[in-house]
Design brief:
InterPro entries: Erg6_SMT_methyltransf, Methyltranfer_dom, SAM-dependent_MTases_sf. By secondary structure, the chain is α/β, with parallel strands linked by helices. It contains eleven helices and nine strands. Helix 7 links the parallel strand 6 and strand 7. Bound molecules: S-adenosylmethionine (SAM).
């Protein structure tokens, strides 16, 4: 992939003439790389949309249409496997693991809240033979999801641009048997009640939500290190601790059927991502090597400041 990229380092002003997004930054080796945000500041959805509309660095790191940290079977409790997946494989493995919890049939109807580029929707529709609708805030991601839909005309897929805090009107009267969501709710934890209400409103009685999400900690600790290398980089204004997260789900009328703490999987993902970001010499918008952001994120995970949860929520029948 690096061979296809520019080997020179043009002046920043020439990037604008070339039509390269403003957040596009070149590494010192002269390899084209994607910066992260227009500004390292915490803000609302407009900036999250901006971030994901321009986050082409994920293509280089994940090398697939999944935009996610992954699942590593060798780290699972009781695993006897020693085979370590790479970051690309781990993204697909997460979908596979979530599907074991969803128990889908061809009659199932699935909504993916924050579907990104729709790769998981394709994989679920292909494996289970069911219909899948994906919603995402980023027009760039939905455009790619629609390309995947065209490439898979035999699958029952639909993609809509919109927010999970206020689902597109086309979905308001729909009912799904399952909702899946990966690393998307965290972007709107300050509005998690609205997200849960939306999920509830489009779920059949007895329906399941299989949700994989980032959480902070129940001590309410946000260190400067976490702020610099995690919160600001990802435009998180508020990240709930696991206990408050679960309380909100229960208050919204869900029972929490199953919870896994995927802290080790989160740390392993960031370790592999740090390696890739270092090899590609990707810089954050503020000039910090992305590898440094990622290594510090591993550190705050190891210190118990942030984690990744996988939960199954159920509506009463
Ligand atoms: C880490 S990516 C995960 C994408 C996808 N779930 C996957 O696993 O590949 C987070 C996604 O959440 C989307 N997102 C953030 N805030 C959102 C909102 N309020 N409504 C819908 N999508 C949102 C982003 O556009 C992005 O595609």
């Amino acid at each position: 992939m690096a061979g296809m990229l520019p080997r020179f380092k043009p002046a920043v002003s020439s990037l604008f003439r070339l039509g390269v997004p403003r957040s596009f930054v070149l590494g010192s080796r002269g390899v084209a790389t994607a910066g992260l945000t227009r500004a390292q500041e915490v803000a609302g959805q407009a900036n999250q949309k901006d971030y994901y509309d321009q986050s082409s660095h994920y293509d280089l790191i994940f090398k697939s249409d999944n935009i996610r940290l992954g699942y590593f079977p060798h780290l699972a409790e009781g695993s006897r496997s020693s085979h370590e997946l790479n970051i690309t494989e781990s993204g697909y493995a997460l979908t596979h693991h979530m599907m074991t919890l969803m128990q889908l049939t061809p009659e199932s109807t699935v909504l993916d809240m924050g579907c990104g580029k729709g790769q998981a929707c394709v994989d679920v529709a292909r494996t289970a033979g069911c219909s899948v609708v994906g919603v995402d805030l980023s027009g760039t991601n939905i455009a790619r999801a629609n390309e995947l839909k065209s490439l898979n005309p035999d699958l029952r897929l639909d993609f809509l641009e919109g927010s999970i805090t206020d689902l597109p009107s086309k979905l308001k009267s729909s009912k799904f048997s399952h909702i899946m969501t990966v690393q998307a709710w965290v972007h709107v934890h300050s509005d998690l009640d609205a997200v849960l209400a939306e999920a509830r409103s489009v779920l059949e009685p007895g329906g399941l939500v299989v949700v994989e999400d980032f959480c902070s900690n129940d001590r309410g600790i946000v260190t400067e290190q976490a702020m610099q290398h995690f919160y600001k980089r990802l435009h998180f204004d508020k990240v709930l601790g696991p206990a408050e997260w679960q309380r909100k789900a229960e208050t919204a009328g869900f029972s929490v059927e199953h919870v896994e703490d995927l802290k080790d999987h989160m740390a392993q993902s960031y370790r592999l991502m740090a390696q890739a970001a270092g090899d590609l010499e990707i810089l954050s918008a503020d000039g910090t090597p992305l590898q440094e952001n990622y290594r510090n994120t591993v550190d705050i995970i190891d210190k118990g400041e942030v984690t990744m949860l996988l939960a199954v929520l159920k509506l009463p029948a």
